[in-house]
Every structure is written in structure tokens, then in C-alpha cells.
TrEMBL record:
Taxon lineage: Bacteria, Pseudomonadati, Thermodesulfobacteriota, Desulfovibrionia, Desulfovibrionales
Domain Fe-containing alcohol dehydrogenase-like C-terminal: from-to ranges: 202-398
Organism of origin: Solidesulfovibrio aerotolerans
Pfam families reported for this sequence: ADH_Fe_C, Fe-ADH
Name assigned to this protein: Iron-containing alcohol dehydrogenase
Keyword field: NAD, Oxidoreductase
Protein family membership: Belongs to the iron-containing alcohol dehydrogenase family.
The protein's required cofactors: Fe cation
Gene Ontology terms for molecular function: alcohol dehydrogenase (NAD+) activity; metal ion binding
Gene3D superfamilies: 3.40.50.1970, Dehydroquinate synthase-like - alpha domain
């Protein structure tokens, strides 16, 4: 029996199975796009808005299969201006193109930015006249969205498995929306589409998956299902990331990294997230050179320093493939943090934000973290009480 099993509150009732997309997973899954579009056309979907950035849809190889399938089955228009950390304007521009075209479904190809833009546009198309800010910041209820097809070309976001989206506000905030209406109808996860990812992105997206897993397994809303999914996700990243770094086109490594990302995504959409994602959003909002996964990887050891004493049984189990022999006791905290830093460095992940920030930036980072929309939703889910002093200490310990 894992140590954490004894600490599970058996009187806590949770939703084991939330609604799910139909997800085609495996090398060659991209070929499913033709039958998906044929089936949607049979159901009356005629006009599809394609949402991508300017690079990944082609660089991944997805377009070689998607373009002929679109031409064969439906009419389509292409919005290709998604930027990293998509803005409200990005989402509204995509939706405007969709409304003009009378799009009755959206197909996104890319990573989290393309998928989240598509999800937001799918909501906006169903609520003509409304702006993104109304859903992201003013509590406007989401009462529908046009159907979504998501083709994932990275292995980190988990967005393809979930019912949330994130966008950059008109200021420095990165709020999120959550609604069952933005679950995709179909998702395609084809590891071959990730084989051209650059090494830095391979590392940072894998760090995103690891942190989804770590946070979801240690929230106060976690479940046995989350912990098991998270444990397997982290084991797979520890096992296969080193191979993907030295041999980017190794499809076995890419398969397991994509699978790790997917199950970490399922875990976080059930257990939710806590401190790391809130603090990282402040980092990348202030300095857009910080990629999401890199920021998370930098913060992770200092976060574990804070939370390990509260949830040692779970974290010891999660990281046992990299740090064997842990007993799951609070006294191991410093040892675990040291080993975790060593593991990060072994896969090329920095654990210092000195490349982006100095000590003088910490007050602004703390302020933005505490003032962000996500802090109100996610910080109360952390396994410890999180106040300004905790956040400041984590940033300082990450310098
Ligand atoms: Fe993330």
C-alpha cells in the first residue's frame, strides 16, 4: 500500500469520470482526420474555421493530412495568427473570422496557444456581441460553444484533454475559463507530429506536464485517480525525456512523452492546479521571453521545498523513479529538493530565474501573483496556506 492511501479521505465524494473528448492516440492517428470530418459533414457541419499559429501546423507535418481532408469534406477558412500566450484580441479576431464565415465548428492544430484560442473563439461564436473579457474576467456564463476538433502538436499543455483555456488579458493578467462546453468533440494525439519540436521546447513542454502532474496530485481537491495518473506521467517523463533530447525523432520516446502529457492533463482537469501555475503566469506575463514550461521548471524545486512537509507521502511516490528510497517523511524535504534540482539539471532544465529576473523584480512578481485572477481560484487549493510571504520566499529561493 502506498503511504498516501492511508491519508485519502474516504468520505470525500468526487467525480471520477467527467465528460471526455473522443481521443485518437498513437503514431498515425492523424489519418483519422478524414473520417472525423466526413462524419461531421454528415451531421450537417459545413463550414470549418481552422485555427493555428504560423508555423507548427506545417512544421509538425499535420497539414499534409489535414488540408486534403478539409478539401474533400467541408468548406474551410484559416486563421493563422495565433501568438504564444494568445491575447483576447487574438481570440476575438479568430471568432470574427468564424462568424463572418458562418463557421459551425473549429479545428485547431498546435499546442496550448492554438487550442486555447480555438476554445475561446468557439465560445465567442456562440455568444455574438460578447467580448473575451466578459467570460475571462466578469463571470459571463458560457452557455455553449461550436464543436471543436483539436490536433495536438506538442507534449505538455494537456489542453486537448480538458475543459479550460487561458488567455492574456489586455493588461498583465492571464486568467482562465472553465466550461464543459469547451471539451473538444474529437482530439488527435499523434506522437509523430512532435518529432520536429526543438530541444528547448521538448524540455519545457515536458516540464509543463510534470508540473500539471505534481500540482494535481497535491491539491486539496486531488483524488486517488489523479495521484495514480500523475505518478505514471512523471515516471514516463523521467524515463523518456533523456532519449527525446538526444534523439528527437525517436517515436517511442515521443509516444510516451505525449501519453504522459495527456494523462497529466486529465489529472489536472480533475484535481486542478495550485501555486506553480499561478506564479509562473506572473513570470511570463511580466517577461514574455519566459516560456510556460521553463518558468514552471525553474519554480518547481522551491515549490517542493514549501509543500513537501505537508504532502510527503504523495511527492515521495511521484518522484520515486528519480529519487528512490524515500520514506515520505517531512524530514526528507531538503534532500528531495537537492535531488530534484539535480534531476532538472540532468535534463537541461534550469532551476534559476536569474536569466530573466533579479532580486529587484521580486516585489513586482509577488504583487502580480497575488493580484492575478488565477490566484483567487488556485492558491486556496494548495496543500499549504499561501500568502505573500510564501510566494516571496519561493521567488527568492528560485533566483
Ligand atoms: Fe501548464
Amino acid at each position: 500500500m502506498s503511504h498516501w492511501e492511508k491519508k485519502i479521505d474516504i468520505n470525500k465524494v468526487f467525480v471520477l469520470q467527467t465528460p471526455r473528448p473522443i481521443t485518437y492516440f498513437g503514431v498515425g492517428a492523424i489519418a483519422k482526420i478524414d473520417s472525423i470530418l466526413a462524419e461531421m459533414a454528415l451531421k450537417g457541419i459545413k463550414n470549418i474555421l481552422v485555427v493555428t499559429d504560423s508555423i507548427a501546423y506545417k512544421a509538425s507535418g499535420a497539414w499534409n493530412s489535414v488540408e486534403p481532408a478539409l478539401n474533400k469534406n467541408v468548406k474551410w477558412k484559416h486563421y493563422d495568427k495565433v501568438r504564444p500566450n494568445p491575447t483576447y484580441t487574438n481570440c476575438e479576431d479568430a471568432a470574427a473570422m468564424g462568424l463572418d464565415f458562418k463557421a459551425d465548428a473549429i479545428l485547431a492544430i498546435g499546442g496550448g496557444s492554438a487550442m486555447d484560442t480555438a476554445k475561446t473563439a468557439a465560445v465567442l461564436i456562440k455568444h455574438p456581441g460578447k467580448k473575451a473579457v466578459e467570460f475571462y474576467e466578469k463571470g459571463e456564463p458560457i452557455t455553449g460553444a461550436v464543436p471543436l476538433i483539436l490536433i495536438n502538436t506538442s507534449h505538455g499543455t494537456g489542453s486537448e484533454c480538458g475543459y479550460g483555456a487561458v488567455a492574456q488579458s489586455d493588461g498583465e493578467d492571464k486568467p482562465a475559463i472553465f466550461s464543459p462546453h469547451i471539451f473538444s468533440t474529437y482530439t488527435i494525439e499523434d506522437p509523430a507530429l512532435t518529432a520536429t519540436m526543438p530541444t528547448t521546447q521538448t524540455i519545457s513542454t515536458s516540464m509543463d506536464a510534470v508540473n500539471h502532474a505534481l500540482e494535481a496530485a497535491t491539491t486539496i481537491t486531488t483524488t486517488p485517480y489523479c495521484i495514480e495518473l500523475s505518478k505514471e506521467a512523471i515516471r514516463l517523463v523521467i524515463t523518456y525525456l533523456p532519449t527525446a533530447i538526444v534523439e528527437p525523432s525517436n517515436l517511442t520516446a515521443r509516444y510516451w512523452l505525449m501519453y504522459a502529457s495527456a494523462i497529466a492533463g486529465i489529472s489536472f482537469y480533475q484535481g486542478m492546479l495550485h501555486i506553480t501555475h499561478v506564479m509562473e503566469h506572473a513570470m511570463s506575463a511580466i517577461n514574455t521571453k519566459v516560456t510556460h514550461g521553463d518558468g514552471l521548471g525553474i519554480l518547481m524545486p522551491a515549490i517542493v521545498q514549501e509543500i513537501y512537509p505537508a504532502v510527503p507521502e504523495v511527492i515521495a511516490d511521484l518522484f520515486s523513479p528519480a529519487i528512490p528510497g524515500l520514506k515520505g517523511e517531512p524530514s526528507e524535504t531538503d534532500f528531495v529538493v537537492e535531488k530534484l534540482r539535480a534531476w532538472c539539471h540532468s535534463v537541461g532544465q534550469s532551476t534559476s530565474m536569474a536569466g530573466y529576473y533579479s532580486e529587484a523584480d521580486i516585489p513586482a512578481l509577488v504583487k502580480l501573483t497575488m493580484a492575478s485572477s488565477l490566484s483567487k481560484v488556485l492558491l486556496p487549493l494548495a496543500p499549504i496556506k499561501v500568502n505573500e510571504a510564501v510566494v516571496e520566499r519561493i521567488f527568492k529561493n528560485s533566483l
